[in-house]
Amino acid sequence: MHRIILVSFVCALVNFIAGAEEPSAKDLLFFESKIRPVLVEHCYKCHSAEALRNKKLESELLLDTKAGIRKGGESGPAVVPGEIESSLLIKAIRHDAFNMPPDTKLAPEVISDFIKWVEMGAPDPRDGQLTQLVRKEIDIDAGRDFWSMRRLGEQIPPSDLNSPWIRTTIDRYIYAALKRKKLEPNRDASRHVLIRRAYFDLWGLPPTPTDVESFVNDPAPDAYEALIDRLLAGQHYGERWARHWLDLARFAESNGYAFDKDRAAAFHYRDFVIKALNQDMSYDRFVRLQIAGDQISPNDYQSQAATGFLAAGTFTSQQTQKERERSRYEQLDDIVGTIGTSMLGLTIGCARCHDHKFDPLPTHDYYRFTACFAETGFQDFDYDPDPKGSKDAKDKFDVAHNILVDSRIDFENAQLTDRLNTWLSADSDPPPREKLGVWQTIGPFPATDFKKAYSEAFPPEQDVNLKAGYGKLKWISQPGWTDGKIHNEFTGDNSANYLYRTIEVGRKSPLEISLGRDDAIIVFLNGKQVLAKEVTGGVAIDQDKVTLQLNAGINHLLIKIVNATGPSGFYFSTKLAVPKNIQDIIDIATGKRSEKQKHELLKWYAPRDVDWVKLSKAELEHLKQQPQPDITKIFASRKNGTTYNFGTDTRKVYFLARGNSNAKTGLATPGFLRVLTARGRTENDWLTIDTSASEASVQLPPRVALAGWLTDEQQGAGYLLARVIVNRLWQHHLGRGIVRTPSDFGTQGAAPTHPELLDYLAAELIRGDWKLKPIHQLIMKSSVYRQAGQNNELATEIDPENSLWWRRGATRLEAEVIRDTFLAVSGSLDKTMFGKGSLDQANPRRSIYLTVKRSNLIPILQLFDAPDSIQSIGHRDVTTVPPQALALMNSPLTRQLAEKFAKRIYASGETTMEQVVNQAYILALSRFPTESEKTQMIGFITAQGISYGNTDKSRSQAVVDYCQLMLCLNEFLFID
Description:
alpha+beta; seven-stranded antiparallel β-sheet; four-stranded antiparallel β-sheet; 23 strands; 37 helices; Jelly Rolls; about 40% helix
């Protein structure tokens, strides 16, 4: 809500505009009886002078006076006498916009009363005073002086310090703050602790026993530094730190809401993040690609996949037409809000309905920022990773294919017409129409089995000149048989039935027939076999098709149907050699055919010419070999994506009153946050590029310009972008950020505990070309990072929250890291990278590759506080609840992994219990047990084995129990 100054004054009120008639007593009675009581009961609570006095006034709208209701609020006049559609009050009570009252809709008869009242001219006797609300604009210039919105100045690290504890510039800032409180930092942690800490911080996996032994025993003075460099160069670094970013990006692989449609190609964004981090892509480019990669590098896979950031939010695919515009603005708000919190550490979304209550972010800036995404939609896109290679292959294919096409065309031009004319002139008179004789049937001819019935040549197929019968079997005429229908006429298991008919044509020509049979079939034409199918199955239409070459005159068609068991059926239809429309053309004298008729005749004849068929077939077969590009589906964002292809306004963004998509107050053009823009600069400094004095300036796409502004540390928001990301790196390495509210750098967020250190890290990032790995090195190689976690009573009394970082605090592993560590210590981890994920929590791949389906989250991850991916998360909750312990002790998954863990460390009869305990500790905790721990654990295994019967099998079972116990230890679940 706007900050307001109340200035009361007396308005000279008039009942109607000059010249209007005074309302009648009847009109005023209508207002008093039908309108005022409803306003008092439902509206005055939030829209009256009393509401204003109680600081409960909404939308700057006063409905308790005539002047107030005519003037209206933030969205315009509430009532325009005589104009229903212009009266926002009517729209509100209809719930066409604003939905007032908010809790329930007024009765239809009450709404009718208000409509009638407005049509009457809105008679209103109330002549009370109107309190005018004077809007106080946000002071953008003053907002630039807030600590997070100030530009980076010169960094001068504390220099008057002399301590061997100081290794890096970071240590100078930390040590100086400690000395001011007369505190001393902790000593370095042991190498066992440091390697475990470094592995989990950078890889999210435990070190192997070999890695631990090698590091602990490495005499090199820079062994620790070399370890950090090696881990940063490893491929698991990207997997570990991608998970942090995916929390911010609210990444999921489904739409959310009730239907929660899958996004099968969304994983490309997750893979992009992993690859970008492993490649140490500069952070400014990392950001730019996620905002506008499709426009910055349209032919690059990573750039295309990167815009999955914009598309990662929830979206309901089940919408009515009325809901679509509202849904679009909800989606745009999600994009803008996520960019704000994840990249800038600002709650920009709070300025959607009103100026930000606390930060210098006007609603005007919010909608102009949102307008940068006016033409942005998301969907599954086809991506060709090698467009040039695909084009070259296509061009090469086209050259070869065109040769075949030209050969066919040359044949058509040189020979086909002559061949058609020869065929037509075979008889001087027009050929008679095809004649199909009546079907004749005979059978069944029995055999000992189906194969015998199929292979044996029974008498009808032995004699070209068919006889009237064979023994007791006679030919039967079937005048009632209709072609194109199934006839179930045959009987006899393992037997053959024959069908015969004549086909008469005027000249040599083909005839296409379609057959169905139950079960096998053999077809003879003029004594020669032309088709044979030895299969069993029910009769169906068009099971077999064959083209018969008919001789001029009478042709003899004999068909053998072989039945296996039960009734047998038959289907027959013909596609006559000369269809009626073609025969009609043939009947026309040669010289009188039109060009169109000649073309149709030649087109029909061509497939009946053997040589043309060969040429055409070669052409078609070659076409099947046409190279296809290696298309990949990517779920991402793009200009004019089809998500919101619903109407004329879907490529525009409007200023909305109170964030209501039904209350548009003007077109919003692309712009940025003024408070983060250098004085004297405007959005045009990024939207427009001056190429030269002689050429016109180039207008950049709004998203490209926004990406440039976001990463411009001199004139744009880059300085805040840098502060936010280095704070996140510090947060994930040391348990919390220099700013404790990592996604809120506004006035309601926490102030930095070490502001100079924060600015130093931000400046180092920018000076280092925005590379993140050097910042990791700077932090992890510092003494503050290497500290042990031991407590100190004096320090605890002075700084109980460890705000000054005098010791290392313990942090619990995230849900994904807990699961991955289970897999690693059990020897089950599948390190395959990238590609589609799985919803099966037992899948042995790393947890980052488990599918994030919003309505079906992975139980073990959800239990340990993995986010639901509904909104950007900068800091995960860390809960301690009984179901966590119960899952570790009782879940089938934990037990299965404990069994695999046990197999790694115990072989019956070959391994001592001391060896079992030692190996379990080094695998699970990256250290060996103390003597006390060893004694205790051996005692536990022994007692468990005895309780199970003290056999080899029982001892194996006891080792499994011990391994499961190790997976439940706090030391296993926490990083010291």
